Amino acid sequence: MFSDESHEPVYFTSSWKTERYVKESGAQTSEIITYEADVQVVNRADAGCQTEEETEQEMVIGHDNSQNLVNFMLRVYPDVSKQLEANAISHAFDGYDVDWEEKSSAVTCQHRLINQASGNQLQITSLSWNSTGSVIAAAYGRLDHEDWCTHKSSLCTWNLDRRGINVNKADTTVDLSSCLLSLAFHPKSPALIAGGTFNGEVHLWDLSCEDEMLVASSGMGNDSHREPVNKIMWLLDPDSKGKKYQILSASGDGKVLLWQVPPIESQDLRLVGGYILQTGAVPRSLRTSKAKGDMEMGVTTLSFSHEDKTLFVLGSEAGGIFKCSVNSRGPPVGNVTSSVPLGSPVTFAFAPHVGPVFSVNCSPYHRNLFLTCGTDGTIRLYTMLQAKPLLSLEPAAGYLFAIRWSPVRPLVFSVATGDGRLLIYDMKVNHINPVTTIDVSDKKPVHTLEYNIHRRQLVATGDSEGVIKIWRLSDELTTQGPRETEILTDIAETQGD
Fold this sequence. Notes:
This protein is mainly beta. Helix content is about 10%, strand content about 35%.
């Protein structure tokens, strides 16, 4: 039925593709002709000059060997010597600093800075003074996100020493694709500044570069934050003998990460250490019934002790306040992906706020005292030695977004309020009520404030309308009186008892 057969092949010649031909050709330039010539200057001129020899001037000191001078010295020497010895052991001028500036008895606004290019849709989320105290940097963003961030934010700086300062336009502007929430100038280099964004990235900029200011970034990998970076700080690298700094970032994902600044040829921040805050760090008496031991707690703020650089205080979204140590040896957490082990830094828990803690600040004049504030509208003064606060104030000003100790007055601190005011307290005068109330904005929240540690009379505020104001404080608020540190110590010990 079937059999094998073979037939001649059939083929068709292409009707559209033609055969290609190749030709070779060469080209050469003409010979290059060169010439040589000598040039020499033929005219020369020599000139010389000499100053006249200066005769050495001899100073002659007159001598008075009269008996009247001898009698005068013998008469006044005992009294003068006794007074000098008394002055040497006196504490009357302890903490006194000579102020050559003009005296002022009122708080005045020296500058009102806005970045018109950002409009009024963005808020001031963070402020930072550079290492010389002449430049103020502002982070533009928003704190009221309900979903993923789609804002175009910016980093802006103004040099207050510039003669032609433009209060409506920043001297330097860096555009970002996500809200910038935290800033910190380098403690020594006035052009280096670190920042944290809403999407979890940590950036490092060099404002002295003309083309590309972004020096390094953490990116968005496994080691980066997964929630907004709420706090940025610079810490001394312990391996550099006090010569280099590292970047510390705290985020809503519960992580506190330590980044190594890369060399010039690299653009990636390298993760070298870190911690994580989980509900297991909270005493059982302070936990909610639904809280599990392996759930992360968002970190909102932190502050290091000014005397013990291994000690810091954390504030959390749940209202918890924790004393932590960089030397904590807690077991590493196994349910978090990271190239470095992350353990709990908590060594002690304080009585919590009711709601998120927005700001924590350790005293520069007392190793155990720190201030906190948050959404519950209370200001609290804690000591590292006990869980309960020493002092609790309720200024009835809505949310309290930022709190800072004065860098020059041990008993003075300031608070930025949700109803648009800056409250300045002086515990030497009054423990309960502020001694100065400044209306910063028209009932709009003031989100941040920063003292200028190099120019003691300046403090900056930033509000929800994107306005920065530079305030000059009165001499009463910036001149330290006698025994203020002793009074602060007495407050800590008396309230603790």
